[in-house]
C-alpha cells in the first residue's frame, strides 16, 4: 500500500536548527538558509507521504536557527565531550522540540539520533546530528537529498533500523509490516531478499534502511503507528 493514511490529524514538531561551523562559507559548514528551508521541506514531504510512503501524523516547522563557530564542536563524534558541550550550550525547547545539529563529524558518519525513551534520563543529549553536506544541495552524494535527516528523525520518533535483529521474524524492528532483513542494504539493490525463509523482499526503499537517498522514499503504516505511540508516550507529541 503506497498511499494509505494512518490515524487522523497531524502534530507539528517545532525544529531548532543549530548550524555549527568552523568559519564562513559552505566549505566551512556555514550553510545557507535555503538548505535549512529545503531540509524542512524534505522532512514534511517524507513524513506526509508525498514521496510515496504513508501519511504519518508528523509535520515540521522551523522555530529558529542558531549559528556557532567552533572548530572542536564542528567535528564532534557521537558520545564525545564536544557533542555534550555543544548540546549543553545550544539546545532549545523541551521533549517535543526537535533540535537538529548540522556539523561535520568525519569518518563517513552521516548522522545519529537519540531515542524518545532516552529523553527522561538525559534531556540535554536529546536531538539529531547530521552531516551538513547530507542536506539538500550538499556534496555528500549519493546521500545529499536530505534523507539522512528523515532517517535520523525516524529514530528520534522511536524507529529502529529495518535490519535490526537481522532475520528475526518476531522482533527485529518491532514493526510487523517491514520484512525482516539480515543486514543493511547499500546502494539500491532491487529485489534483495536477505532473509529468504521469511516472507517479503527486503525493505530497501524504507527510510530506516541504509540505501541511497534516491532509493529510499517511504515509511510504512506500522512505522507510522510506532512513531505515533512512542512520541506520545515519551515526548507528549
Ligand atoms: Ca519488521
Ligand atoms: Ca524475505
Ligand atoms: Zn540509523
Description:
- With 237 residues, the chain is α/β, with parallel strands linked by helices.
- It has two domains: 11-159, Collagenase (Catalytic Domain) (3-Layer(aba) Sandwich); 161-218, no CATH class.
- The protein has helices at residues 33-48, 71-74, 81-90, 147-156, 221-235, and strands spanning 11-21, 58-69, 98-103, 111-113, 128-131.
- It has a five-stranded mixed sheet.
- β1, α1 (33-48) and β2 (58-69) form a beta-alpha-beta unit.
- The relative contact order is 0.17.
- The model is unreliable at 1-5 (pLDDT under 50).
- One calcium ion (CA) binds next to loops.
Keywords:
5 helices, binds zinc ion, alpha/beta, disordered N terminus, 237 residues, binds calcium ion
Task: Give the SSE map.
Layout lengths: L10 E11 L11 H16 L9 E12 L1 H4 L6 H10 L7 E6 L7 E3 L14 E4 L15 H10 L64 H15 L2
Parallel strand pairs: 1-2, 1-3, 3-5
Antiparallel strand pairs: 4-5
| Domains, number | 2
Structure annotation, total helices: 5
- The total of beta strands comes to 5
CATH homologous group name of the largest domain: Collagenase (Catalytic Domain)
CATH uppermost class of the largest domain: Alpha Beta
Q: What order do the helices and strands follow? A: EHEHHEEEHH
The CATH topology of the largest domain: Collagenase (Catalytic Domain)
Give the proportion of residues in helices.
10-25%
* Bound ligands, named by name, code or SMILES: calcium ion, zinc ion
Large-scale geometry: globular
Question: Would you identify the regions where 5 or more consecutive residues have pLDDT less than 50?
Answer: 1-5
Provide the spatial order of strands within the biggest beta sheet. Answer: 2-1-3-5-4
The Cα radius of gyration reads 17 Å
Measured by DSSP, the beta-strand proportion falls in 15-25%
The helix/strand class is: alpha/beta
Described by strand count, sense and barrel closure, the largest sheet is: 5 strands, mixed
What distance separates the N and C termini? 26 Å
CATH architecture of the largest domain: 3-Layer(aba) Sandwich
The quaternary organization reads as: single chain
Give the integer mean of the pLDDT values. Answer: 95
Amino acid at each position: 500500500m503506497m498511499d494509505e493514511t494512518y490515524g487522523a490529524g497531524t502534530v507539528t514538531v517545532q525544529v531548532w536548527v543549530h548550524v555549527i561551523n568552523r568559519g564562513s562559507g559552505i566549505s566551512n559548514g556555514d550553510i545557507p538558509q535555503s538548505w535549512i528551508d529545503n531540509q524542512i521541506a524534505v522532512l514534511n514531504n517524507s513524513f506526509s507521504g508525498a514521496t510515496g510512503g504513508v501519511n504519518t501524523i508528523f509535520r515540521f516547522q522551523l522555530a529558529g536557527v542558531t549559528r556557532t563557530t567552533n572548530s572542536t564542536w564542528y567535528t564532534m563524534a557521537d558520545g564525545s565531550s564536544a557533542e555534550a558541550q555543544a548540546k549543553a550550550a545550544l539546545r532549545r525547547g523541551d521533549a517535543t522540540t526537535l533540535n537538529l545539529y548540522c556539523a561535520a563529524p568525519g569518518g563517513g558518519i552521516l548522522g545519529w539520533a537519540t531515542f524518545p525513551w532516552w529523553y527522561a534520563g538525559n534531556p540535554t543529549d536529546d536531538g539529531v546530528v547530521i552531516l551538513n553536506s547530507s542536506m539538500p544541495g550538499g556534496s555528500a552524494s549519493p546521500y545529499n537529498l536530505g534523507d539522512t535527516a528523515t532517517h535520523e528523525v525516524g529514530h528520534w520518533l522511536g524507529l529502529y533500523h529495518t535490519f535490526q535483529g537481522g532475520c528475526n521474524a518476531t522482533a527485529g524492528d518491532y514493526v510487523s509490516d517491514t520484512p525482516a532483513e539480515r543486514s543493511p542494504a547499500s546502494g539500491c539493490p532491487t529485489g534483495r531478499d536477505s532473509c529468504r525463509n521469511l516472507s517479503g523482499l527486503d525493505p530497501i526503499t524504507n527510510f530506516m534502511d541504509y540505501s541511497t537517498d534516491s532509493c529510499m522514499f517511504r515509511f510504512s503504516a506500522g512505522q507510522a503507528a510506532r512513531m505515533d505511540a512512542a512520541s506520545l508516550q515519551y515526548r507528549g507529541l
